C-alpha cells in the first residue's frame, strides 16, 4: 500500500484511470503545491462503476452476514495496521495536524467499519402477532446499488461512515470522495484489494462534484444517495433525486450555538469550548461557532478564552506541537477571510486573530494558515452570526436569561448540534427539549457513541446516520403476513 502521484479510480476491483485519461491537480494546503493528480471522471466512469456493482450485487447480497463481517473486519485491520501511512496522507491532503489524523481520523475510520460489520450481525427483525389469525414479520433487504458522496473536512472518517453500513447491509456502493482530499480514499481502495473484497462491491470514482458527483446522483440505477456537504449542494441533490424517488440522507451545514450559563464548571467549560471552537481549524460541522455567555461571567470568560486562543500554535501540520494546521484550500481561506471582513463592517470587534500567518519556514510557504479568530460586539441576527463560515472563527455574545439564550440559539436556519453548559440539570433538560437541533451536548462536546442517531433539522439536513438508523437507511423494509 503506497501513496502514488497519480491516483486511480477503483472500479470492478481494479485501479484504473478515468476513461478520458484526464487528471486534476491535487494541491496540498501544507505548502500550496501540487503533489498528486486525480482522475477527472465523468458519466462514463460512473456507468462502468454501476455495471460492476450490478454484477457484484447478487453474490454480495446473498453471501451471508458472517462472510461480510469477516471481510469488513479484515479491511479495518489493514487500515489500523497502516495507521502512519493513512495519517500522513490525511494531513498532507487536508492540512490538519498529524496528531489529529493519528488520534481521531484514522482510528475512527477503522472503528466505523468494525462497528457496522458487527452491528449487522446483531440486527433483529420485528414481528407482529394478530391473535388467532396471522403473524407479520419484517424483512430488511439491501437496496442494491447506492451512492455515497463525502466531504473534505474529515475525509476517511466520513467516507467510511457512509460506506461501512451500506456494505454491511449487503449493498454495492459507488462512492465519491472530495476532489480536494482524495488520497486516503485511494489508499482505502488498495486496502480493499488486500482484504479480499469482491470485485465491484465497492467502487470509488474520483473527480469533480459537477461531473462525477452529478452523474452518481442522476444515475437511474443508483437507488439511494447518502451525502455530506454544503446545504446548497444538498438542495441541488434533492431537486434531482426526489423526482426519481431515490432514498436520500443529507447531512448538511451547521451554525451551532454554545450556551454557557454562569453556574457552569468554568475550567471544564473553557477547555472544551476551545476545542469546540477551533478543532480541525473549525472545519467540523459540529463546531460551536456562536458562543453565548451569561452576563455575570462574560468578562471572565472573554479574558480567559482570548488568552488561551492566543497560545494556540498555528503551523506545520507534521509537527507534534501544532494545534492548528492549514485550512484546506486557497479558495476556502479566502472565503473565511471575507467573513472576518464582513464582521468588521457589521460592527464586530476582532479580539484576537483575524489575520493570515506569515510563515518563516520555507517548506510551509504557500500554505493556507490563519490565526484563530474571536469576534464580539455583533448584533445577534447579522450575517456573520447567521451564515456558516466553517473556519477558525467564532463570535461571542452575552445574554441575561434562559429565554434570551434559547431565542438566540434557534434564530438561524441551521439545526445540527448545540452545547449547554450548566450545573442545573433541570434547566439543561428543559433547554435540550426546546433547542432546534439534532444533537444536544450537555457539559461536553463531541462525545460520540456510534450507536446513536446523527443528523440535523431545518437546513442542516434530512435523515439520520449512525447505529440502527444507518442500517435502516441502506435497507428496504418488507412486511410478510402469514395466516394460520
Describe the structure.
The protein has 15 helices and 22 strands. 50% of the residues are buried. The chain has a 7-stranded mixed beta sheet, with helices on both faces. Strands 9-8-7-10-11-21 form a 6-stranded mixed beta sheet, with helices on both faces. Strands 5-6-22 form a 3-stranded antiparallel beta sheet. Helices cover 40% and strands 22% of the residues. Helix 2 runs antiparallel to helix 4 (98-121) and helix 2 (65-81) crosses helix 6 (183-195). The termini are far apart. The model has no long low-confidence stretch (mean pLDDT 97). It has 484 residues and is of the alpha/beta class.
Describe the protein's topology.
Layout: E1 9-11, E2 14-16, E3 23-28, E4 33-39, H1 43-62, H2 65-81, H3 83-94, H4 98-121, E5 127-130, E6 134-142, E7 145-149, H5 155-168, E8 172-176, H6 183-195, E9 202-204, H7 209-218, E10 224-228, H8 231-241, E11 247-251, E12 256-260, H9 266-278, E13 288-294, H10 298-311, H11 330-345, E14 349-352, E15 373-376, H12 383-386, E16 393-399, H13 402-409, E17 414-415, E18 417-421, H14 425-434, E19 439-442, E20 457-458, E21 461-462, H15 467-473, E22 475-483
Parallel strand pairs: 7-8, 7-10, 8-9, 10-11, 12-13, 12-18, 13-16, 15-16, 18-19
Antiparallel strand pairs: 1-2, 3-4, 5-6, 6-22, 11-21, 14-15, 17-20
Amino acid at each position: 500500500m503506497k501513496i502514488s502521484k497519480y491516483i486511480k479510480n477503483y472500479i470492478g476491483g481494479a485501479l484504473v484511470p478515468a476513461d478520458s485519461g484526464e487528471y486534476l491537480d491535487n494541491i496540498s494546503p501544507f505548502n500550496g503545491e501540487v503533489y498528486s493528480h486525480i482522475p477527472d471522471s465523468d458519466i462514463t466512469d460512473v456507468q462502468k462503476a454501476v455495471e460492476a456493482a450490478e454484477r457484484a450485487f447478487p453474490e454480495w447480497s446473498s453471501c451471508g452476514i458472517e462472510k461480510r463481517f469477516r471481510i469488513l473486519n479484515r479491511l479495518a485491520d489493514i487500515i489500523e495496521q497502516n495507521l502512519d501511512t493513512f495519517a500522513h496522507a490525511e494531513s498532507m491532503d487536508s492540512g490538519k495536524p498529524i496528531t489529529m489524523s493519528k488520534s481521531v481520523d484514522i482510528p475512527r475510520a477503522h472503528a466505523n467499519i468494525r462497528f457496522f460489520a458487527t452491528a449487522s450481525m446483531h440486527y433483529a427483525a420485528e414481528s407482529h402477532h394478530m391473535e388467532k389469525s396471522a403473524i407479520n414479520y419484517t424483512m430488511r433487504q439491501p437496496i442494491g446499488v447506492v451512492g455515497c458522496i463525502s466531504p473534505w473536512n474529515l475525509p476517511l472518517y466520513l467516507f467510511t461512515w457512509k460506506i461501512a453500513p451500506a456494505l454491511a447491509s449487503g449493498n454495492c456502493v459507488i462512492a465519491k470522495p472530495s476532489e480536494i482530499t482524495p488520497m486516503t480514499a485511494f489508499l482505502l481502495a488498495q486496502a480493499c484489494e488486500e482484504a479480499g473484497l469482491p470485485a465491484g462491491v465497492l467502487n470509488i470514482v474520483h473527480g469533480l462534484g459537477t461531473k462525477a458527483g452529478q452523474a452518481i446522483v442522476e444515475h437511474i440505477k443508483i437507488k439511494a444517495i447518502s451525502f455530506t456537504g454544503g446545504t446548497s449542494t444538498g438542495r441541488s441533490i434533492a431537486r434531482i433525486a426526489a423526482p426519481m424517488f431515490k432514498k436520500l440522507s443529507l447531512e448538511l451545514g451547521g451554525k451551532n450555538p454554545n450556551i454557557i450559563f454562569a453556574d457552569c464548571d468554568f475550567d471544564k467549560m473553557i477547555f472544551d469550548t476551545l476545542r469546540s471552537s477551533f478543532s480541525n481549524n473549525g472545519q467540523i460541522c459540529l463546531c460551536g461557532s456562536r458562543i453565548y455567555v451569561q452576563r455575570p461571567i462574560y468578562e471572565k470568560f472573554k479574558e480567559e478564552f482570548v488568552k488561551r486562543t492566543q497560545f494556540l500554535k498555528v503551523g506545520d501540520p507534521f509537527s507534534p506541537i501544532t494545534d492548528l494546521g492549514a485550512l484546506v484550500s486557497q479558495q476556502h481561506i479566502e472565503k473565511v477571510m471575507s467573513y472576518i471582513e464582513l464582521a468588521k463592517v457589521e460592527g464586530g470587534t476582532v479580539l484576537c486573530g483575524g489575520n493570515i500567518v506569515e510563515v518563516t519556514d520555507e517548506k510551509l510557504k504557500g500554505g493556507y494558515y490563519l490565526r484563530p479568530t474571536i469576534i464580539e460586539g455583533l448584533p445577534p441576527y447579522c450575517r456573520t452570526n447567521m451564515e456558516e463560515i466553517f473556519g477558525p472563527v467564532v463570535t461571542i455574545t452575552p445574554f441575561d436569561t434562559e429565554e434570551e439564550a434559547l431565542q438566540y440559539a434557534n434564530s438561524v436556519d441551521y439545526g445540527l448540534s448545540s452545547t449547554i453548559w450548566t450545573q442545573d440539570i433541570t434547566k439543561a433538560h428543559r433547554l435540550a427539549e426546546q433547542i432546534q437541533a439534532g444533537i444536544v451536548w450537555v457539559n461536553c462536546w463531541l462525545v460520540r457513541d456510534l450507536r446513536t442517531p446523527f443528523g440535523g433539522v431545518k437546513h442542516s439536513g434530512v435523515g439520520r446516520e449512525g447505529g440502527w438508523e444507518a442500517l435502516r437507511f441502506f435497507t428496504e423494509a418488507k412486511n410478510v403476513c402469514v395466516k394460520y
